[in-house]
């Protein structure tokens, strides 16, 4: 949600890819792709954003903390980032999502959005469950 120099962003992508491969992820056994090249992520985020109310997003602790660190400013990107996270989860019809304690509320938002969408348009998205790690 913060502007990055294009060269730094490209290097971060390469570094992250190298780290994923170094952890033992085998691209012959799973899909490894650059999410920013999949337009459906942002397209679904727009649709889900139209179903999400602003007061709900304003209550998320991450918004409050990051906004405070930005001198009471806050970008639309920062505010709507949890909706993009929900789109990232729901696009693939994920049923279980590994999350840390700090992301539980964002997953709950994704669950609420999925339920709201399903109620309005019919059963389409599974409601994802959290897999909490002790680490």
From TrEMBL:
<keyword id="KW-0436">Ligase</keyword>
<keyword id="KW-0067">ATP-binding</keyword>
<dbReference type="GO" id="GO:0070183">
    <property type="term" value="P:mitochondrial tryptophanyl-tRNA aminoacylation"/>
</dbReference>
<keyword id="KW-0030">Aminoacyl-tRNA synthetase</keyword>
<dbReference type="GO" id="GO:0004830">
    <property type="term" value="F:tryptophan-tRNA ligase activity"/>
</dbReference>
<keyword id="KW-0547">Nucleotide-binding</keyword>
<dbReference type="GO" id="GO:0005524">
    <property type="term" value="F:ATP binding"/>
</dbReference>
<dbReference type="InterPro" id="IPR050203">
    <property type="entry name" value="Trp-tRNA_synthetase"/>
</dbReference>
<dbReference type="Pfam" id="PF00579">
    <property type="entry name" value="tRNA-synt_1b"/>
</dbReference>
<keyword id="KW-0648">Protein biosynthesis</keyword>
<dbReference type="InterPro" id="IPR014729">
    <property type="entry name" value="Rossmann-like_a/b/a_fold"/>
</dbReference>
<dbReference type="GO" id="GO:0005759">
    <property type="term" value="C:mitochondrial matrix"/>
</dbReference>
<comment type="similarity">
    <text>Belongs to the class-I aminoacyl-tRNA synthetase family.</text>
</comment>
<dbReference type="InterPro" id="IPR002306">
    <property type="entry name" value="Trp-tRNA-ligase"/>
</dbReference>
<protein>
    <recommendedName>
        <fullName>tryptophan--tRNA ligase</fullName>
        <ecNumber>6.1.1.2</ecNumber>
    </recommendedName>
</protein>
<dbReference type="InterPro" id="IPR002305">
    <property type="entry name" value="aa-tRNA-synth_Ic"/>
</dbReference>
């Amino acid at each position: 949600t913060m502007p990055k120099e294009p060269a730094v962003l490209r290097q971060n992508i390469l570094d992250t890819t190298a780290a994923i491969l170094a952890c033992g992820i085998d691209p012959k056994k799973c899909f490894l792709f650059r999410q920013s090249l999949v337009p459906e992520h942002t397209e679904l985020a727009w649709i889900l954003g139209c179903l999400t109310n602003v007061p709900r997003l304003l209550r998320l602790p991450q918004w409050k903390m990051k906004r405070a660190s930005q001198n009471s400013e806050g970008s639309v990107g920062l505010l709507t980032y949890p909706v993009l996270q929900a789109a990232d989860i729901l696009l693939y019809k994920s049923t279980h999502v590994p999350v840390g304690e700090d992301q539980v509320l964002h997953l709950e938002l994704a669950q609420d959005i999925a339920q709201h969408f399903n109620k309005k348009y019919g059963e389409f998205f599974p409601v994802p469950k959290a897999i909490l790690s002790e680490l």
